[in-house]
Structure formats: structure tokens, C-alpha cells
């Protein structure tokens, strides 16, 4: 058998091909990957000049893992092909193709037989070894797992030089991002006798010492202070220094000059280790580990120049910069800046504008002659990058369909320190929406999304309509708000635009399940399910049940709760957000029933001979509500008006809780209508980053007392006074969400400030009636531990238990007074600073710090909006689609602080489930 091209040495094989003699032998006498050592004696075939042969057969030898038919396909050779031998380039291409796969240590083509005009070939391959297993040494398992994922390592993969270099690169980057700039990797390969052509690979990783930035030294900055420049370098922070007594500071400085023998006396073999021990006493980390990252440093240098440009220093440059190690193996950064002179805006003229006049564009731009030169501000005002806030020139044009609009600011003259600009516009035609396509809605029916869109085929394109459509889709709650895509596809030829929306479904149905068995109490627990994307029209189509029919955007909620004989409740509600399917008319219906018997277990704990404790008392509530909400067009289409009709029936038997004499037995009926005007412009529901919520409501029962003006109802027994309840009730809520910094990167994480104000009042129509205990306000607690079934608005306050008086000096722990019947007026103010740790729709997590002030009052005469209970604290929120919103807060009630007491006595831990408490 003749070896054509050993190890790809194609040129040598071609040069010597004219003098080669090809031997023919039996194939089964030849080892698969090596030419025969002693070929059988056969008659030599004299090969003269190159001839053309037809391939009669091709075999592949030496493979252990790879598919032979695939390798034949990769080689480009096949039976029946015409090849030239010797000297044909078909063999060259075949070897190059197989060699480029980087799977082989040797690629050779053998001629095993030549007969007439036919040729028999064998492709001999030596596969590179496989990685039967691998481990990382010198690092934590969690770090090894991260590196394994980033490097794409897996057992059974081919061990190549490229694979090794990839692992080394991943390790260096992984630890460089963590501040270890001197990480190294040594790779060992050990043969694996248990598997053919396999090796066990060991990655020995040394992280080295952590490289931190000790000092950033800046020179040449005459007009901007060091701290302003360093503040801009968010990814390159120096370690902060404690202010200590100068003598202690000098001890530290002197220690740097001590010889190695000094440190070895104290057991430190390496002086740097000793300095690392001392260093924390003089330095601390504040929101930053001061680690050095080369990529972030390069970004920060650009930000420094951007800062100078925004201050008018158009020609500012970093002349030179360097990094070098200190005695403690940390890093110093030296930077020399040339600021140049300060520039100002001169004349700004407009060219190419027909839609808006020069004066209108100048007013929108908001830059006047003589203002400090700021290129970043100029580009922002003209709208170089589309922003959701709008207010820029590009936004004004795109809101009127000018999708093909272009704007270009050009410097036309520099006079001393003044720069003149000409802003050139190419308005183009107004684009008409042609097609709107939606993708990614695997569960939700397309019409549910399409009815929320403001971009309608045939209408003019509008950027605001596009942004509003994004908001409406996000507020459905069915999709990941971070993954909603909007892609306008302009068609320049016909002046139209197609819009592609992409969504990603997320789980949003909720389950509440708990159960227990407690001795004489019996069965306790809760079973509740909420389907937020229900489909009523498919209720009789069995194939749509998964577990219930879904996709039409309706909401169905069922909840059953029991605490043995003491308490049970049933709740059912259904909401159709688009009644009739053509307009946003929200229709809701709900039914609920509850039973409470606080004396159910008195037989188990009352004393012998006690005949006064009743086991028969109870309080029952039966209610129903029907509401219809309509989206308004004025003042704008963020407004919604909701009408609702409500009925509650209360039955009392030996139930003395309300503190009203004579009101322990009887039946009360509450028939009322409620009008609610609300406006919501938040960008999403779970973690709003911008927008606001406003709500004002008025609730009225029929004015029964006005039908009989001669009767004094207040003198009748309570059980008769409250047979038909009458009141008027008003609520006001306002919430604002303000991002404190622009979102950086794709994760959109930013601090958000939430500010809220709330007010409520319930009163009588006249003085001839007594206000019932129902519908009032209960203050304090978390809205869960003080859950009430007697129709009260629970206004939570973190840091306080339920309180019963408007006097902040009275500690709520003193208990409920006998005559307490709830507050008729309240106000509350909230300020929260929020930050999201995860915006993943499967587990949205954010933390918060809060300030709260609130109080309740018995009547308007007692009302004082400045006499408030105050609290502060921190909390966490977790949104899990299956369970809804979970929250934990730790609050300190400042008015609970007692003389000689600590914060612990004034602190309260609260828990919330399923909703944000009021």
C-alpha cells in the first residue's frame, strides 16, 4: 500500500510523485492507520506520467468515534469520481478539508490497489484524544461550574489546542472581572486506561492576589476637581481611606519600609501578606471592591472625556495614563489630562425643515447662543437615539409619521471660543403602516394582543403609538416585559412601514394551597386559584383545557378558606376586560361569603361552672358586586371610569366586637353604588420604573334618613338603626414612580423612587343618624395579620401593629379600647427607594427602603394632617408567578420608642402575600 500524503505534506508528495512505485496487496494485511512494515511480494506497477483513474472504492480506517460516511462526505471524494494520480489536486483538497476539522492528529491517504483505469483508496486517520473527564484544582466548586459553563467544556469532547486556549482565556477573563489580574492555568493530561484514546484533564488554576486600585492620581485638571472626575469613573474606583490619628497612619506608612526579616519575626513569611492584614484597618470598601478591570477602565476614560465635553471642553484629551503596582501589590492609576479651552454655542441655524418653523425647532432644542458647549446635550435634544420620554426633535417628527427623517448637526464655523452650527434636516415622506405582525404568543390568542396595539395598518406611523403599544402589552401581565420587541421595518420604495412585535409568554396563573389538622380545631387551610388568562368561550371545548381553557385575557378567581369551626370563607370573581370585544369596557362580577365564630372552641378552655361564655356567637357576611369600567378619551386615554353596584348583608349573633352598645344581634344590609375615576400610566405592573397611578372614588348608599326627615334615627336601638346602613365615602390615592438614573445595558436595572399619598373619609348625610361600624378604616399592621371580614378598609403601616387612637404618644400595644369602632378619616404618605435584583419574569426580586407617616382620626373635628405616626425600614419583594407577590418588611415605629428602650422594642417584622397592602 502506497502512502500518498503523510501528515499533509502535500508539496513533497507532489514533487516526488513521478518516481513513486505503487504496490498492491491484500487490504486485511495492513494495519488501519500505518503503512505495512513488510508488504507482501507483488509485481510492481510502474507509474509514469500522471493518469486519470476512476475511484472504485474508498475506505476509512483509524476512526473510533466519528461516523465514516460523514467523514467521506467531508473529504469530497466519492466512488465514481475521476482523479488524477499522481499529482491530482483532489487529494490535496480532501486532506485540507479533513485537517480543517481539527479533530485529527494525522491525516493520510493510501492507494491500496490500481487495476486498469480504477483506483482503490484508504483514508487513514489518527483521531485526537478525547477528554474522558476533567477537574479544576485550586478554586471553589461554584467557580469551577461557572467556568465550565462559560468555556463549554463537556466530557467526551476532543482535546485540541484551541480548546485549551479557550479555557485559559475564559479563566483569565473570569477572574479579571473579579479583580484577580494575575490568574494562571496549568493543564495536565493523564492517560485514561479505561477508555480508548482518552485522557483525564486537570486544570490547575491559581487566582493570584486580588488587584485593587489604591489611588487614582490625576494631573492637568485645572477646571474640574478630582472627585468629580473620579465620580464619573464608576467602573474604576479607588479604595476609600479611614480618617485615623496621624500617628497610626504613620505606623502604617513606616511598616511599608520594614525588611522581610521584620515581618518574619511575627510569623509572616511574605511581607505582602502582612500588609494585607494591616490594610483593612486603614481602608474600607464603600459600594465597590475597588477591583481593577481593564475593559471598564477603557470605558471610564471615555466617560472622563465625555464629562469634559459636556462642560464645554471640546478639545479635552487624556495625554497619557499608566498603571503600576504599589508595595502592597495593589494598583495605582496615574492620568494626565489636557483640558484645552472652554467653548460656547454660537449661532444655530436650520436647513431643510418644512413641517416646523425655525422658531419652533429652536424652542424644542432649548439651546441658546452663549450656552456652554455640550455635544452630548445637543445630540440628546435633536434625538440621535430614540428615547421613550420624547421631547426631542426627532421624536416630534416621528410622532407625525416621518420615519425616514434624518438630522445632522454640522459645525460651520469656530470663532475664537464660539462654535456655530447648522442643523440639516431631511424630512422625507410620512410613513404609513402597512402590516403589523405578532410572534411568540404561544398561549395568548392574537386578538388579545392586537386589540391593545395603537399601531393600526393604514394609519400614519407614530413613535408614541409604538411606545404606548409596548406599555399596553406589558401591562397585560401575560408576557415578559423585558423581552417585548418592537421592530419597524421601513419600505423606502413605497413609503410604508411594517411593524414586527415579538413577545415571550410567562406563567402568571396563581395557586394558594395550605392545609392542616389541629386536634379539636379540625381541618384548616386555604385553596385558591387565579387564572389570569382565562377563556370563557372555550369552557365546553375539552381539548382547550390545560388545566382550564386560556388565551382570551379574562380573569377567573376561586378561593376557599377554613379554620375549622371558627372561620370559613368562599370567594368567586370573574373579569372580562373587553366586554363585547370592540372597546375596552371592563366587566366584573364577584360573590363572597364568610363566617366567623370567635367562641367556637370556648368549651375546650372555659373554667368548670362557667355558664356565661357563649359558644353560639357568630358573624356572617354575604356579598355580591357587579362593575363596569370604561376607558375615557378625555382628558386623555389613560383615564378609566368604573361604575359598580354592591350589596353586603351582615348577620350578628352574640357578637360584641364593634364597641357599640346593643349591637350584638341583628341583620344589617348595605346597598351602595361606587364611582371610581382612575388614571394609570406606569410602564409595567410588577416593578414600575416610570409613570403614575391616580384614583379618586365616591361611594354612596341610599339616603334613607332623608326620606323621613321628621324621624331621629340616632335614638333608636342600634340593631334597628343599622338595619339599612347609610353613609357617603371618599377615597384618594396617588403614586408616582421616578427613575433616579438612566438604565444602563440590557437589564434596565435602576434605582426607582416611589412617592405616594392617600386619604380617606366616611361620613353621614345628616346628624339624625349614627354612622355604622362598617366601611370604616383600620390603621396599622400589614393587612394580613389584622385581616378583617367585617368590611373595613385596612390601611397598613409598617413598624406598627393595629392602633386604635389618633394620639401617637399612646403605645398601640396597650390593646383595643372597649368603645373602638374604627376611624372615619385617615391620611398616609409613603416614600420608597427601590432597586431590582432580578427582572426575570419567573422570579422578579427587588429591595426597598421606606419612610412612612400615617394616622387615623375618629372624625373631621379631630383631623390633623400633620399629627402622624412615623416609621422607616427596609424590605424585599418577590414576585413568583405561581404565588403572586410576596413581601417582607422590617420597620421601626419612631413613636413606639420608649425612654430607656432600644430599637428592638419599636421594631416590627411584617409579611405580605399576594398584594401590596394599602
Automatic annotation (TrEMBL):
The keyword Repeat applies. It is found in: Membrane. Keywords: Cell outer membrane, Membrane, Repeat, Signal, Transmembrane, Transmembrane beta strand. It comes from the Bacteria. Residues 343-428 form the POTRA domain. One of its GO terms (biological process) is membrane assembly. It holds the Pfam family POTRA. PANTHER family: SORTING AND ASSEMBLY MACHINERY SAMM50 PROTEIN FAMILY MEMBER, TRANSLOCATION AND ASSEMBLY MODULE SUBUNIT TAMA. This is Beta-barrel assembly machine subunit BamA. It comes from Chitinophaga arvensicola.
Amino acid at each position: 500500500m502506497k502512502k500518498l500524503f503523510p501528515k499533509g505534506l502535500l508539496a513533497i508528495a507532489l514533487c516526488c510523485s513521478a518516481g513513486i512505485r505503487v504496490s498492491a496487496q491484500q487490504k486485511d494485511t495492513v494495519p488501519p492507520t500505518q503503512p505495512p512494515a513488510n508488504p507482501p511480494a507483488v509485481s510492481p506497477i510502474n507509474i509514469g506520467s500522471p493518469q486519470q483513474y476512476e475511484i472504485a472504492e474508498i475506505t476509512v480506517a483509524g476512526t473510533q468515534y466519528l461516523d465514516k460516511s460523514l467523514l467521506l462526505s467531508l473529504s469530497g471524494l466519492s466512488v465514481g469520481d475521476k482523479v488524477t494520480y499522481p499529482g491530482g489536486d483532489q487529494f490535496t483538497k480532501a486532506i485540507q478539508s479533513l485537517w480543517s476539522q481539527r479533530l485529527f492528529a494525522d491525516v493520510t491517504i493510501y492507494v491500496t490497489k490500481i487495476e486498469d483505469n480504477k483506483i482503490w483508496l484508504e483514508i487513514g486517520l489518527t483521531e485526537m484524544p478525547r477528554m474522558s473527564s476533567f477537574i479544576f484544582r485550586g478554586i471553589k466548586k461554584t467557580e469551577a461550574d461557572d467556568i465550565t459553563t462559560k468555556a463549554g467544556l463537556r466530557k467526551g469532547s476532543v482535546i485540541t489546542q484551541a480548546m485549551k486556549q479557550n479555557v485559559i482565556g475564559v479563566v483569565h477573563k473570569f477572574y479579571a472581572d473579579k479583580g484577580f489580574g494575575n490568574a494562571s492555568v496549568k493543564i495536565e493530561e493523564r492517560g485514561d486506561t479505561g477508555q480508548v484514546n482518552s485522557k483525564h484533564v486537570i486544570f490547575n488554576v491559581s487566582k493570584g492576589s486580588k488587584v485593587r486600585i489604591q489611588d487614582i492620581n490625576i494631573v492637568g485638571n485645572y477646571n474640574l476637581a478630582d472627585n468629580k472626575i473620579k465620580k464619573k469613573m464608576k467602573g474604576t474606583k479607588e479604595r476609600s481611606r479611614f480618617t485615623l490619628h496621624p500617628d497610626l497612619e504613620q505606623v502604617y506608612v513606616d511598616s511599608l519600609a520594614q525588611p522581610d526579616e521584620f515581618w518574619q519575626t511575627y510569623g509572616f513569611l511574605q511581607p505582602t501578606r502582612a500588609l494585607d492584614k494591616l490594610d483593612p484597618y486603614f481602608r474600607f470598601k464603600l459600594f465597590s471592591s475597588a477591583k481593577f478591570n481593564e475593559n471598564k477602565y477603557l470605558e471610564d476614560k471615555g466617560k472622563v472625556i465625555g464629562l469634559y465635553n459636556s462642560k464645554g471642553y471640546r478639545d479635552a484629551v487624556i495625554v497619557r495614563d499608566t498603571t503600576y503596582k504599589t508595595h502592597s501589590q495593589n494598583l495605582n492609576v496615574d492620568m494626565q489630562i489636557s483640558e484645552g479651552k472652554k467653548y460656547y454655542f454660537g449661532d444655530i441655524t436650520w436647513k431643510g425643515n418644512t413641517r416646523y418653523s425655525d422658531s419652533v425647532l429652536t424652542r424644542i432644542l432649548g439651546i441658546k447662543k452663549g450656552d456652554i458647549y455640550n455635544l452630548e446635550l445637543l445630540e440628546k435634544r435633536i434625538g440621535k437615539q430614540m428615547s421613550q420620554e420624547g421631547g426631542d426633535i426627532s421624536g416630534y417628527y416621528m410622532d407625525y409619521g416621518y420615519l425616514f427623517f434624518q438630522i445632522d448637526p454640522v459645525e460651520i464655523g469656530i470663532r475664537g471660543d464660539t462654535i456655530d452650527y447648522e442643523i440639516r434636516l431631511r424630512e422625507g415622506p410620512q410613513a404609513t403602516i402597512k402590516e403589523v405582525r405578532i410572534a411568540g404568543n404561544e398561549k395568548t390568542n392574537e386578538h388579545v394582543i392586537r386589540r391593545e396595539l395603537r399601531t393600526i395598518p393604514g394609519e400614519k406611523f407614530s413613535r408614541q403609538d409604538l411606545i404606548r403599544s409596548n406599555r399596553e402589552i406589558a401591562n397585560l401581565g401575560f408576557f415578559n416585559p423585558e423581552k417585548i420587541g418592537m421592530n419597524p421595518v421601513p419600505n423606502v420604495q413605497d413609503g410604508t412601514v411594517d411593524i414586527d412585535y415579538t413577545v415571550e409568554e410567562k406563567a402568571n396563573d396563581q395557586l394558594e394551597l395550605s392545609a392542616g389538622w389541629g386536634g379539636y380545631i379540625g381541618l384548616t387551610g386555604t385553596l385558591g386559584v387565579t387564572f389570569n388568562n382565562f377563556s370563557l368561550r372555550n369552557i365546553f371545548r375539552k381539548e382547550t383545557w390545560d388545566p382550564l381553557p386560556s388565551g382570551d385575557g379574562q380573569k377567573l378567581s376561586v378561593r376557599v378558606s377554613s379554620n375549622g369551626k371558627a372561620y370559613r370563607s368562599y370567594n368567586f370573581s370573574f373579569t372580562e376586560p373587553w366586554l363585547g370585544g370592540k372597546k375596552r369596557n371592563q366587566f366584573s362580577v364577584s360573590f363572597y361569603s364568610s363566617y366567623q365564630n370567635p367562641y367556637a372552641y370556648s368549651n375546650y378552655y372555659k373554667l368548670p361552672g362557667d355558664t356565661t361564655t357563649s359558644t353560639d356567637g357568630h358573624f356572617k357576611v354575604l356579598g355580591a358586586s357587579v362593575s363596569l369600567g370604561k376607558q375615557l378619551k378625555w382628558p386623555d386615554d389613560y383615564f378609566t371610569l368604573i361604575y359598580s353596584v354592591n350589596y353586603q348583608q351582615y348577620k350578628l349573633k352574640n357578637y360584641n366586637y364593634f364597641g357599640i352598645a346593643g349591637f350584638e344581634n341583628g341583620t344589617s344590609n348595605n346597598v351602595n353604588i361606587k364611582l371610581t375615576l382612575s388614571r394609570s400610566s406606569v410602564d409595567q405592573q410588577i416593578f414600575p420604573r416610570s409613570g403614575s397611578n391616580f384614583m379618586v372614588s365616591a361611594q354612596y348608599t341610599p339616603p334613607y334618613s332623608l326620606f323621613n326627615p321628621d324621624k331621629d334615627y340616632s335614638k333608636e336601638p342600634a340593631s334597628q338603626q343599622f338595619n339599612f346602613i347609610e353613609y357617603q365615602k371618599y377615597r384618594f390615592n396617588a403614586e408616582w414612580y421616578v427613575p433616579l438614573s438612566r438604565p444602563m445595558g440590557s437589564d434596565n436595572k435602576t434605582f426607582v423612587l416611589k412617592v405616594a399619598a392617600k386619604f380617606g373619609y366616611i361620613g353621614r348625610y345628616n346628624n339624625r343618624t349614627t354612622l355604622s361600624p362598617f366601611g370604616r378604616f383600620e390603621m396599622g399592621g400589614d393587612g394580613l395579620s389584622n385581616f378583617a371580614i367585617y368590611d373595613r378598609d385596612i390601611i397598613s403601616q409598617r413598624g406598627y401593629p393595629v392602633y386604635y387612637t389618633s394620639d401617637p404618644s399612646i403605645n398601640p400595644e396597650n390593646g383595643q379600647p372597649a368603645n373602638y369602632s374604627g376611624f372615619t378619616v385617615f391620611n398616609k404618605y409613603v416614600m420608597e427607594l427601590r432597586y431590582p435584583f432580578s427582572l426575570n419574569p419567573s422570579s422578579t426580586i427587588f429591595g426597598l427602603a421606606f419612610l412612612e407617616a400615617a394616622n387615623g382620626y375618629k372624625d373631621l373635628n379631630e383631623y390633623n394632617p400633620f399629627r402622624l405616626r412615623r416609621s422607616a425600614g427596609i424590605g424585599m419583594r418577590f414576585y413568583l408567578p405561581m404565588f403572586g407577590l410576596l413581601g417582607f418588611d422590617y420597620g421601626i415605629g419612631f413613636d413606639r420608642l420608649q425612654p430607656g428602650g432600644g430599637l428592638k422594642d419599636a421594631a416590627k417584622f411584617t409579611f405580605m402575600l399576594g398584594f401590596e397592602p394599602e
